[in-house]
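Bug #77: duplicate submission created two jobs. Keeping one. Sequence:
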Amino acid sequence: MGSFEGRAALVTGGARGIGEATVRALAAVGINVIVADVLDEEGAAVAASLGASAVYQHLDVTDVDNWNAVLAQSERQFGPLTALVNNAGILEFGGVGDLEPAAFWRVLDVNLVGPFLGIHCAAASLRRAGGGVVVNVSSTAGLMGYQNLAGYVASKWGLRGLTKAAALDLSEANIRVCSVHPGPIATPMTAGLDASVAAGQPIARFGQPEEVAAMIRFMIVEGTYSTGSEFIIDGGAVTGTGPVVAPSTAEVPAAAR
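Kept job's structure:
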Protein backbone atom coordinates (compact mmCIF):
# COMPACT_ATOMS: atom_id res chain seq x y z
CA MET A 1 0.00 0.00 0.00
CA GLY A 2 2.80 2.40 0.83
CA SER A 3 4.11 2.38 -2.75
CA PHE A 4 0.97 4.24 -3.85
CA GLU A 5 1.15 7.04 -1.31
CA GLY A 6 1.73 10.36 -3.02
CA ARG A 7 0.93 8.92 -6.45
CA ALA A 8 -1.92 10.03 -8.71
CA ALA A 9 -5.20 8.47 -9.86
CA LEU A 10 -7.84 9.83 -12.21
CA VAL A 11 -11.45 8.79 -11.64
CA THR A 12 -14.05 9.54 -14.30
CA GLY A 13 -17.61 10.11 -13.17
CA GLY A 14 -16.01 11.07 -9.87
CA ALA A 15 -18.63 13.57 -8.75
CA ARG A 16 -21.07 11.11 -7.19
CA GLY A 17 -22.07 7.49 -6.68
CA ILE A 18 -19.39 4.84 -7.25
CA GLY A 19 -17.01 7.47 -8.60
CA GLU A 20 -17.19 9.70 -5.54
CA ALA A 21 -16.84 6.71 -3.19
CA THR A 22 -13.77 5.60 -5.17
CA VAL A 23 -12.21 9.05 -4.99
CA ARG A 24 -12.62 9.04 -1.22
CA ALA A 25 -11.32 5.48 -0.83
CA LEU A 26 -8.17 6.25 -2.81
CA ALA A 27 -7.54 9.56 -1.06
CA ALA A 28 -7.84 7.76 2.28
CA VAL A 29 -4.74 5.66 1.48
CA GLY A 30 -2.65 8.64 0.40
CA ILE A 31 -3.31 8.70 -3.35
CA ASN A 32 -3.75 12.11 -5.00
CA VAL A 33 -6.95 12.05 -7.03
CA ILE A 34 -8.19 13.89 -10.10
CA VAL A 35 -11.98 14.04 -9.84
CA ALA A 36 -13.11 14.08 -13.48
CA ASP A 37 -16.73 14.65 -14.47
CA VAL A 38 -19.13 16.88 -16.40
CA LEU A 39 -20.97 17.72 -13.17
CA ASP A 40 -18.83 20.73 -12.33
CA GLU A 41 -20.45 21.93 -9.11
CA GLU A 42 -20.72 18.47 -7.56
CA GLY A 43 -17.26 17.41 -8.68
CA ALA A 44 -15.61 20.57 -7.38
CA ALA A 45 -17.32 20.07 -4.01
CA VAL A 46 -15.99 16.50 -3.74
CA ALA A 47 -12.44 17.65 -4.54
CA ALA A 48 -12.66 20.61 -2.14
CA SER A 49 -13.73 18.31 0.70
CA LEU A 50 -10.45 16.38 0.35
CA GLY A 51 -8.14 19.38 0.43
CA ALA A 52 -4.80 19.36 -1.36
CA SER A 53 -4.99 15.63 -2.18
CA ALA A 54 -7.70 16.13 -4.82
CA VAL A 55 -8.47 18.42 -7.73
CA TYR A 56 -11.52 18.65 -9.98
CA GLN A 57 -11.24 18.66 -13.76
CA HIS A 58 -14.13 18.95 -16.22
CA LEU A 59 -13.94 15.94 -18.52
CA ASP A 60 -16.19 14.81 -21.35
CA VAL A 61 -14.91 11.26 -21.77
CA THR A 62 -15.96 11.21 -25.44
CA ASP A 63 -13.65 14.15 -26.31
CA VAL A 64 -10.03 13.15 -27.00
CA ASP A 65 -8.79 16.74 -26.78
CA ASN A 66 -10.44 17.13 -23.39
CA TRP A 67 -8.74 13.92 -22.24
CA ASN A 68 -5.32 15.18 -23.31
CA ALA A 69 -5.82 18.57 -21.66
CA VAL A 70 -6.95 17.04 -18.36
CA LEU A 71 -4.07 14.56 -18.33
CA ALA A 72 -1.53 17.30 -19.03
CA GLN A 73 -2.90 19.45 -16.21
CA SER A 74 -3.05 16.54 -13.75
CA GLU A 75 0.54 15.58 -14.54
CA ARG A 76 1.71 19.15 -13.92
CA GLN A 77 0.00 19.07 -10.53
CA PHE A 78 0.54 15.51 -9.28
CA GLY A 79 3.04 13.93 -11.65
CA PRO A 80 2.43 10.90 -13.92
CA LEU A 81 -0.68 8.82 -13.32
CA THR A 82 -0.41 5.61 -11.35
CA ALA A 83 -4.06 4.63 -11.80
CA LEU A 84 -7.01 5.33 -14.08
CA VAL A 85 -10.54 4.38 -13.10
CA ASN A 86 -12.95 4.45 -16.06
CA ASN A 87 -16.19 4.78 -14.14
CA ALA A 88 -18.29 7.33 -16.05
CA GLY A 89 -21.35 5.74 -17.59
CA ILE A 90 -24.90 6.37 -18.72
CA LEU A 91 -27.97 4.20 -19.15
CA GLU A 92 -30.79 4.37 -21.69
CA PHE A 93 -33.76 2.01 -21.58
CA GLY A 94 -34.79 0.30 -24.80
CA GLY A 95 -34.56 -3.04 -26.57
CA VAL A 96 -33.12 -3.70 -30.00
CA GLY A 97 -36.49 -3.01 -31.64
CA ASP A 98 -37.29 0.29 -29.99
CA LEU A 99 -34.07 1.95 -28.79
CA GLU A 100 -33.33 4.88 -31.09
CA PRO A 101 -30.01 4.46 -32.92
CA ALA A 102 -28.84 7.85 -31.62
CA ALA A 103 -29.43 6.67 -28.05
CA PHE A 104 -27.56 3.43 -28.75
CA TRP A 105 -24.55 5.34 -30.04
CA ARG A 106 -24.71 7.78 -27.12
CA VAL A 107 -24.45 4.92 -24.62
CA LEU A 108 -21.57 3.30 -26.53
CA ASP A 109 -19.76 6.64 -26.83
CA VAL A 110 -19.75 7.24 -23.08
CA ASN A 111 -19.52 3.67 -21.76
CA LEU A 112 -17.10 2.12 -24.27
CA VAL A 113 -15.44 4.74 -26.47
CA GLY A 114 -14.82 6.89 -23.38
CA PRO A 115 -12.78 4.20 -21.58
CA PHE A 116 -10.89 3.42 -24.80
CA LEU A 117 -9.92 7.08 -25.15
CA GLY A 118 -8.95 7.18 -21.48
CA ILE A 119 -6.61 4.20 -21.81
CA HIS A 120 -5.30 5.42 -25.16
CA CYS A 121 -4.50 8.90 -23.85
CA ALA A 122 -3.34 7.91 -20.34
CA ALA A 123 -1.00 5.10 -21.41
CA ALA A 124 1.95 7.46 -21.89
CA SER A 125 1.51 8.95 -18.42
CA LEU A 126 1.23 5.49 -16.86
CA ARG A 127 4.42 4.49 -18.68
CA ARG A 128 6.21 7.56 -17.31
CA ALA A 129 5.18 6.45 -13.82
CA GLY A 130 6.91 3.12 -14.44
CA GLY A 131 3.60 1.28 -14.72
CA GLY A 132 0.21 1.41 -13.09
CA VAL A 133 -3.34 0.15 -13.07
CA VAL A 134 -6.47 0.72 -15.15
CA VAL A 135 -9.81 -0.29 -13.65
CA ASN A 136 -12.80 -0.36 -16.00
CA VAL A 137 -16.17 -0.25 -14.28
CA SER A 138 -18.32 -2.64 -16.28
CA SER A 139 -21.44 -4.29 -14.82
CA THR A 140 -23.21 -7.60 -14.44
CA ALA A 141 -24.66 -6.42 -17.77
CA GLY A 142 -21.19 -7.24 -19.12
CA LEU A 143 -21.58 -10.85 -17.97
CA MET A 144 -25.18 -11.65 -18.95
CA GLY A 145 -28.08 -10.25 -20.96
CA TYR A 146 -30.81 -7.90 -19.77
CA GLN A 147 -34.07 -7.05 -21.50
CA ASN A 148 -34.76 -3.43 -22.48
CA LEU A 149 -31.09 -2.45 -22.10
CA ALA A 150 -29.62 -3.20 -25.53
CA GLY A 151 -27.17 -0.29 -25.59
CA TYR A 152 -26.06 -0.66 -22.00
CA VAL A 153 -25.50 -4.42 -22.28
CA ALA A 154 -23.58 -4.01 -25.55
CA SER A 155 -21.38 -1.31 -24.04
CA LYS A 156 -20.58 -3.26 -20.88
CA TRP A 157 -19.74 -6.48 -22.76
CA GLY A 158 -17.55 -4.36 -25.02
CA LEU A 159 -15.80 -2.85 -22.01
CA ARG A 160 -15.15 -6.34 -20.68
CA GLY A 161 -13.48 -7.25 -23.97
CA LEU A 162 -11.52 -4.00 -24.12
CA THR A 163 -10.15 -4.83 -20.68
CA LYS A 164 -8.77 -8.17 -21.92
CA ALA A 165 -7.18 -6.60 -25.00
CA ALA A 166 -5.64 -3.72 -23.06
CA ALA A 167 -4.26 -6.08 -20.40
CA LEU A 168 -2.33 -7.91 -23.11
CA ASP A 169 -1.29 -4.79 -25.02
CA LEU A 170 0.05 -2.94 -21.97
CA SER A 171 1.59 -5.78 -19.99
CA GLU A 172 5.07 -5.00 -21.29
CA ALA A 173 4.81 -1.54 -19.74
CA ASN A 174 3.93 -2.96 -16.31
CA ILE A 175 0.36 -1.67 -16.65
CA ARG A 176 -2.36 -3.91 -15.25
CA VAL A 177 -5.92 -3.65 -16.58
CA CYS A 178 -8.92 -5.19 -14.81
CA SER A 179 -12.70 -4.83 -14.81
CA VAL A 180 -15.18 -4.60 -11.96
CA HIS A 181 -18.76 -5.81 -12.46
CA PRO A 182 -21.24 -4.31 -9.99
CA GLY A 183 -24.79 -5.54 -9.68
CA PRO A 184 -27.54 -3.17 -8.49
CA ILE A 185 -25.84 -0.40 -6.52
CA ALA A 186 -27.63 2.47 -4.74
CA THR A 187 -26.54 5.42 -6.91
CA PRO A 188 -28.30 8.27 -8.77
CA MET A 189 -28.34 6.03 -11.87
CA THR A 190 -30.51 3.43 -10.10
CA ALA A 191 -32.66 5.87 -8.14
CA GLY A 192 -35.77 4.98 -10.14
CA LEU A 193 -35.47 1.21 -9.67
CA ASP A 194 -37.65 -0.68 -7.22
CA ALA A 195 -36.08 -2.71 -4.42
CA SER A 196 -37.49 -5.86 -6.07
CA VAL A 197 -34.62 -5.65 -8.56
CA ALA A 198 -32.40 -7.23 -5.90
CA ALA A 199 -35.02 -9.44 -4.28
CA GLY A 200 -33.95 -12.66 -6.03
CA GLN A 201 -30.27 -12.35 -5.16
CA PRO A 202 -28.55 -14.40 -2.42
CA ILE A 203 -27.75 -11.04 -0.80
CA ALA A 204 -31.16 -9.48 -1.31
CA ARG A 205 -30.35 -5.79 -1.22
CA PHE A 206 -28.78 -3.06 -3.29
CA GLY A 207 -25.04 -2.69 -2.79
CA GLN A 208 -23.50 0.55 -1.59
CA PRO A 209 -21.02 2.64 -3.61
CA GLU A 210 -18.49 2.27 -0.80
CA GLU A 211 -18.54 -1.52 -1.24
CA VAL A 212 -17.61 -1.19 -4.90
CA ALA A 213 -15.00 1.46 -4.09
CA ALA A 214 -13.36 -0.88 -1.59
CA MET A 215 -12.97 -3.49 -4.33
CA ILE A 216 -11.56 -0.93 -6.76
CA ARG A 217 -9.08 0.24 -4.12
CA PHE A 218 -8.02 -3.38 -3.58
CA MET A 219 -7.51 -3.87 -7.31
CA ILE A 220 -5.28 -0.79 -7.47
CA VAL A 221 -3.34 -1.11 -4.24
CA GLU A 222 -3.17 -4.79 -3.35
CA GLY A 223 -4.26 -6.92 -6.31
CA THR A 224 -0.80 -6.79 -7.84
CA TYR A 225 -0.96 -10.26 -9.43
CA SER A 226 -4.19 -9.62 -11.34
CA THR A 227 -4.55 -8.34 -14.88
CA GLY A 228 -7.26 -8.95 -17.44
CA SER A 229 -9.34 -10.18 -14.48
CA GLU A 230 -13.03 -9.67 -13.71
CA PHE A 231 -14.02 -8.72 -10.18
CA ILE A 232 -17.72 -9.29 -9.52
CA ILE A 233 -19.58 -7.45 -6.77
CA ASP A 234 -23.26 -8.17 -7.27
CA GLY A 235 -24.85 -9.74 -4.19
CA GLY A 236 -24.69 -13.07 -6.01
CA ALA A 237 -26.91 -11.89 -8.88
CA VAL A 238 -25.09 -13.80 -11.63
CA THR A 239 -24.92 -16.93 -9.48
CA GLY A 240 -28.55 -17.73 -10.25
CA THR A 241 -31.10 -16.12 -12.51
CA GLY A 242 -29.97 -12.59 -11.77
CA PRO A 243 -31.96 -9.55 -10.68
CA VAL A 244 -35.43 -8.78 -11.95
CA VAL A 245 -35.31 -6.82 -15.22
CA ALA A 246 -36.56 -3.26 -14.91
CA PRO A 247 -39.62 -2.42 -17.03
CA SER A 248 -39.18 -0.14 -20.02
CA THR A 249 -41.25 2.53 -18.28
CA ALA A 250 -38.82 2.87 -15.39
CA GLU A 251 -37.43 6.39 -15.11
CA VAL A 252 -33.73 6.31 -14.38
CA PRO A 253 -31.57 9.38 -14.97
CA ALA A 254 -29.07 8.84 -17.76
CA ALA A 255 -26.26 10.38 -15.73
CA ALA A 256 -22.76 9.51 -14.70
CA ARG A 257 -22.47 7.12 -11.76
